[in-house]
Amino acid sequence: MRTSSPSRWRAKATVLFAVATIGGGGALIALTGTVSSASTVTPKTAHSTATVTLQFWNAYNDVTETPVMNGVVIPSFEAANPGIKVKDDTLPYAGLLQKFIAASAAGDPPDLMRSDIAWVPQLASEGTLLETSAQPWFKAVAAAADPGPLSTNYWNGGYYGLPDDTNTQVFFYNKADFAAANLKPPTTWNEMIADAKILTIPSKGQHGLGVDSTDIWNVGPYVWTDGGNFTNAKLTQATGFMNGGATRNAVSTLVSLYKEGVIGSDFVGGSGAISGETGFPKGEYAMYLDGPWATTTYKDAGFTGYGTSVIPAGPGGSVSVVGGEDLVIAKGGKNLADTIKFVEFLQSPYAQLAMASAGDMAAYKTDNNAEGNLNPALRIFAQQLLTAKARPVTAGYGELDTDFSNQLALMLAGKVSVTQGLNTAAQEANKALAQAS
Predict the structure, then answer these.
(1) What does the pLDDT read at residue 134?
(2) Which H or E element spans position 100?
């Protein structure tokens, strides 16, 4: 079950194929707009001082991501930039945020960190990050980036990071279940709800729909697609949005579907609950939403009887959720110019596609076609990212998400009504937003 930002795609690396493809002659576009052959990466430029070592903190997966970063990306950067070395410090995810905060307070932060997207507004509010939108190269980056991943770096009128990698959820459906019911895959929200009811067959232990938790990562796409929201655009108020009419309608639908047995045990979790990703290939869920890691899971398991599409459109459109990581540069860093060179390289098609081979979806529109050629299963996720939405980008997100999730759990347990639960969640979320402003 995934209840937070799904940072890593659990794919097996296909490094040799990816590097061969990249080295075969793609284009490398730097932040400054210069272009060079991907096989030569960037022009070598002599460093004017003694060797500089950049400290790069991250929480890469040491099975899929670290080998590509250390074996392909960093060596290529160092070869193109004599005099600059990169120390890749892969640290435990659980302590990375607090370690960065403590190091910044002590005046000794790393030059660069790969940050969970949910951390950026908190770090920006504490004054630890370079404002990237104040840099001369930012405009070109913003134009190339997918809008959802870019938005995760916004705080208080500026941007304080840059998209590194991304992911989202799309609609999965079981082809055999739809064929047996003589149904076509839904294209609208109302069709999806109707089909979920038809495809709920208790005698087979089959639920029409799987929803993998009560948090905003899992519930947000349903709320947004049905026209609801969690806060106002300025991220200052939840009242009128989290408990607004459209959100209430979406949540009421999900609660009703759960109580009718249409949504399975994944929604409430706990002992014995079966996640969508586990139950879907076994015929326990006919439809659910999941990310690109699921395609690898099914490939490894030999399950091919499914289809994917963008989320069936509702009053709010077809809206999924943005996941992934951002690159944040420490404010007042000792090696700022050289750090920016490395960031520039990490955002180039060469590095983005190399890391895509390790499971990190590129966060830039300019790489979507090449990424899709590398792994065709990613094309639908790239399409969905064009209308995906970031969870509330605020330092108070953690509390806001907990407030909503806890109240939804009470609604599903029948302990509070939908109206009562959303009113309470909105009031508590207001406090989190006020403290974060």
Answers:
(1) 95
(2) helix 93-105
Do 340 and 239 fall within a single domain? Answer: no
Same domain, 101 and 188: no
Is 430 within a domain?
yes
| Strand boundaries in 265-331, DSSP class E | 287-290, 306-309, 323-329
Work out whether strand 323-329 and strand 112-116 pair parallel, antiparallel, or are unpaired. antiparallel
> Which of left, alpha, beta for 127 (phi over 0: left; psi -120 to 50: alpha)?
left
CATH number of 297's domain: 3.40.190.10
- Tell whether 4 is covered by a domain: no
Range of the domain at 86: 15-167+324-385
**Do 222 and 352 lie in a common domain?**
no
Biggest CA–CA distance in the chain, Å, is 74
Number of domains in the chain: 2
Residue 184 DSSP class: P
Q: What confidence score (pLDDT) does residue 26 get?
A: 34
Question: What pLDDT was estimated at residue 333?
Answer: 82
Q: What is the pLDDT of residue 59?
A: 94
Does one domain contain both 113 and 41?
Answer: yes
Two tokens, residue 133: 């939108």
Tokens of 413: 């347990």
Q: Phi and psi for 115 in degrees, rounded to 5? A: -105, 145
44 with 121, same domain? yes
Integer Cα distance of 59 and 39 in angstroms: 28
* Residue carrying structure tokens 């330092």: 395
pLDDT digits over 75-125, tens only?
A: 999 999 999 999 999 999 989 999 999 999 999 999 999 999 989 999 999
Residue 1, domain member (yes or no): no
Residues 163 and 202 both lie in one domain: no
Q: Please list the rounded mean pLDDT of every run of 10 residues in the chain (437 residues).
A: 32 34 35 31 51 96 89 97 96 93 94 95 94 94 92 94 95 97 97 98 96 96 98 95 98 98 94 89 95 88 95 98 96 90 95 88 90 89 93 92 97 98 98 89
- Residue 389 has φ and ψ, to the nearest 5°, of -125, 140
Does 278 share its domain with 367? no
SS3 content of the chain, % helix, strand, coil (to 5): 45, 15, 40
pTM for the full model? 0.83
- Are residues 428 and 304 located together in one domain of the fold? yes
Q: Do 129 and 328 meet the contact criterion of CB atoms below 8 Å apart?
A: yes
Per-residue pLDDT, 157: 92
In a domain, 3, yes or no: no
DSSP E strands: which ranges in 201-282? none
